[in-house]
Specification:
Length: about 120
């Protein structure tokens, strides 16, 4: 799939807080909880609940969000398609990290077991 020329730049400048409510709605609509969403975000980034709220309130961009993150060593094992892109083939590191998060949220919403989402199995 071809992406628009400014796709990576738009992704970098998008605020985490503008997308976060959509994550919450997506998982809650499918019977999962905000606590489970935070567990997934914490696994990927190392952020606790307080830090997640702080990042939302500070209106950080995804670029700032992932600059502060301590990405989980198993994050590269997140593979597959999300939003029409194969995650492991994304060449921009920041865009790939955002898609890691999108994929984890998607797996949570689809009812996947937490052990599989967190790559502990």
């Amino acid at each position: 799939m071809n992406k628009p020329a400014n796709h990576d730049e738009r992704m970098a400048k998008m605020t985490f807080g503008s997308v976060y409510p959509h994550y919450v709605i997506k998982v809650e609509k499918k019977g999962r909880s905000k606590a489970e969403l935070h567990e997934v975000i914490t696994w990927l980034t190392g952020f606790d609940d307080e830090k997640i709220e702080s990042l939302i309130n500070d209106k950080v961009t995804f670029e700032q969000f992932f600059e502060q993150a301590n990405l989980h060593p198993n994050a590269p094992s997140i593979k597959g398609m999300i939003c029409g892109y194969r995650i492991e083939e994304i060449d921009n590191p920041l865009t790939q990290k955002v898609r890691y998060l999108d994929k984890l949220v998607d797996e949570l919403a689809k009812g996947r077991k937490m052990e599989k989402i967190l790559r502990t199995e």
